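Q: I'm a student working through a structural biology exercise. My instructor gave each of us a protein and asked us to get a predicted structure, then write a short paragraph describing it. Mine is Glutamine--tRNA ligase. I'm not confident about reading structure output yet, so if you can add a plain explanation after the tokens, that would really help. Here is the sequence I was given:
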Amino acid sequence: MMNKDQFADNHFIRTIIEDDLQSGRHSAVHTRFPPEPNGYLHIGHAKSICLNFGVAYVYDGLCNLRFDDTNPEKENQEYVDSIKEDVRWLGFEWAGRPHYASDYFDQLFDYAVGLIKEGKAYVDDLTAEEMRQYRGTLTEPGRNSPHRDRSIEENLDLFYKMRDGAFPDGSKTLRLKIDMASGNVNMRDPVIYRIRRARHHNTGDKWCIYPMYDYTHAVSDAIEGITHSLCTLEFEAHRPLYDWVLDNIPAPHPIRPRQYEFSRLELLYSITSKRKLSQLVSDGHVSGWDDPRMPTISGMRRRGYPPEGLRLFAKRAGISKSENTVDMSILEGAVREELENSAPRLMAVLDPIKVTLTNFSDGLTQSRSAPFHPNHPEMGEREVPISQTVYIEAGDFSENPPAGWQRLTPGGEVRLRYSYVIKCNEVVKDENGNIIELKCSIDHNTLGKKPEGRKVKGVIHWVSAEHAAEIKVRLYDRLFTVERPDAVRGEDGNYLPFTDFLNPESAKETTAYAETAALGLPPESRRQFERLGYFVTDRRDHRPDAPVFNRTVSLKDTRQEKQTDG
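A: Happy to help. First, here is the predicted structure for Glutamine--tRNA ligase. I'll explain a few features afterward.
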């Protein structure tokens, strides 16, 4: 359940909005989330979604979902559909219908014609390479194109012919006439239209010229009445162009949008480049965009991250202009905190060892019920049956225990969770010396009460072999072994391929045994396997009669503990 307190952080954008409302510059808040439909959304987009939709929610405003679809060669309907699904799954709903920059192609063209008529735009014949040569450098001004002084009539004629398909791809562009000597290279007569014959997912083959992002974005904001256009910090140098476009397009708009920038999220042990994420998919390093190891929203959803956990993470990551580098443990901690309160419990054994209860008696040995959650009685209870043979984790038994060991040992006692205290009387091994069975006895006077005359500290989880449900469990770990896999240099000083740092142990699969409460669950059911971690039934492969669980996150951050111990 969302509430405004989840987004009520004090940050500089909130201060700007408060000032705008108090001063009367704006009477309401209208934001937008404008992804390009050229890939699946990732954790950085989740932060932006929470900011744009969150501030609109706090101020009872509106937030548009707009697809900035100006690059038809890389865009398709699959990405559009996935973005809609991700935004809704995170808990947000956009104002009205989804918007598309391509909805405004006619207006964008008309505004460009108006700019030509006012002598503020011209058709250029320079190639991309020639344009780079004319642009200058950060320390040297650019040079005017030899085509910059074409007449308005000639520019209009050429631009209409560009639209009508009279010229080959890449042969001409439409540029704004601003200032080739500007210290900001984005203002050196930027291109706002190029010729590109490519079928568009929304407009089909209507256009063979497409507007550039900077021009389109500013105009789209104005058309939609956006008040606060929130972008990541790399667009700060583009803001003068954004303002120039809005100040010069020959059409009045009642709302004057303004752009504000915040630092983008960098998540350690991950990557957020769409190109590199696409490479992981196309090269087969992962099973798809929604592979549970991917930092995509759909991947994190499939892994079992709840939307509430991602919203909490976005809040903790914060909004500022300073570097926003966040360790993976912060994300995992937010997910863990949410699941601790919301995930029902059950027991499962991932690495089983057989335990025979030698004095088990149908008439004497009893089962107990156990709550699904210790703090939420409304979740109910389930019966935890016991039988002569049970499974425990192999790691919960040691013939040579270290100091402080509180689990099972030869001759030692331990309590079975929600059941009896048992004592290990015999260890059975195969011909190779591997332990294959433990023979233990039950203290029948310890069901629901402490043993008399002694203390038993250890409590371990288990499942009854007779009643166990066989389940498939996928154990996921971090996809990369280093903090910044795309920023590691080799001895020659060049960046090494980020795929060199893929974690070969990032995905494992095992057959396990669980309580029968694991059966009959629908996909995306989150559970805590007691003492093991948080798991979810797989969104794609799980069936109620053939359970597939993905490990979402461990019960605690063992990495942080190891770093602290070291």
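A: Here are two points you could use in your paragraph. The chain has 13 helices and 27 strands. The chain has a mean pLDDT of 95. It's a good idea to check both against the output above yourself.
Q: Great, thank you!
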